[in-house]
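Sharing in case it's useful to others searching the archive later.

Someone asked me privately for the predicted structure of Type-4 uracil-DNA glycosylase, so I'm posting the question and my answer publicly. Question first, with the sequence:
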Amino acid sequence: MSERAATHAAAPVPSTRSLPALRAAAATCEACDLYRNATQTVFGAGPRTATIMMVGEQPGDVEDREGDPFVGPAGRILERAMAEVGLSRPRTYVTNAVKHFKFRREGKRRIHEKPDAGELAACRPWLRAELAAVRPRVLVVLGATAAATMLGRSFRVSQERGRLLEFADYVDGSPLTTEDGPPIEEALLVATVHPSAVLRARDRQAAYADFVADLRTVADLRF
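And my answer, the predicted structure tokens:
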């Protein structure tokens, strides 16, 4: 296969709801160029029986090296906030809209770069497969990039964060929709910032408090 063909190949998503099988298949994905520089595919993690699925943007430097989502500094913020409101991390499925780390180099450092529309589109079949496998009752959208890939570019996290919404209300504008419809049209939805935004905030304490308040909306559902 030529380099050009590999760049534009379809994601090799198998017809299965087995998370181990999906994870194994994703390890060979070359649907966009991000695999070329990333250490490995970072697939979602958590049980298929999870009632809550959290979706972020992409793995970071630590996640790229270790192979698991949300295990770096932002992941520690997320885990701390979840514990504070009583959400169980081991019973939650966590994943990203893009499964490879996109970065630029500054000396020895690898600096995060935002995935573009083509990269989000190339990875979207994996997210659809995860949603179909887990079928969560609640979706937690972490940040603007995750919101755009799941709900469409018109959705504004800043306006809707912390509110309990219904995914069905966003189906018409969702890039997840296909001719077969979205896999989780009955799910509830809560949007908030990505936990990395807490780390970047000038007032980190206030940003963290707001983030915890958003997650409390999920915890109050008491599934």
